[in-house]
Amino acid sequence: METPIEWSDDLLFHIDEIDDQHRNLFLLINRLIGHKRNHGPREELIDLLRVLVAFAQTHFRTEENHMTESHYPHALEHYEEHEEFTKCIHNFMGDYERGKEDLSDKMLTFLRHWWNTHVAKSDQTLARYLKEKGHPS
Ligand SMILES: [Fe+2]
Ligand SMILES: [Fe+2]
Predict the structure, then answer these.
(1) Domains (ranges, CATH) in the chain?
(2) For residue 37, which of 2, 3, 51, 61 is within the disulfide window of CB 3.0 to 4.6 Å?
(3) CA of 59 to the centre of ligand 2 (A)
(4) Ligand 2 midpoint to CA 106 (Å)
(5) Segment (H or E) for 37
(6) Alpha-carbon distance 122 to 80, whole Å?
């Protein structure tokens, strides 16, 4: 549960802006995992989640701009996965701020699952499409 997620170059878009954003999201998720492992302070957890949400918004808008510009046929479902992520993290934050939960295994399971499904699969479907469309690196 508390082992870090792993980076793979199979996740690369070969679009620098997106790859940098994914690397940052990867680091942030591992900081959250480390926070849990080290029993870090609660305030730090909320700060990390705030950074994650803000950073994810920037990243999602970047991908969505690429989807719009390239007329990506699965844009709507991809967008909905982004919205779902934001909603879930806000729900977790709300729970913590109301003092309902500590950094739960549930949230780490969610982030791990999101990394392995959205980033590793849905994003890669988009990456292959953009590559076919001849997006310059
Ligand atoms: Fe992404
Ligand atoms: Fe995405």
Answers:
(1) 10-132 (1.20.120.50)
(2) 2
(3) 8
(4) 21
(5) helix 16-37
(6) 11
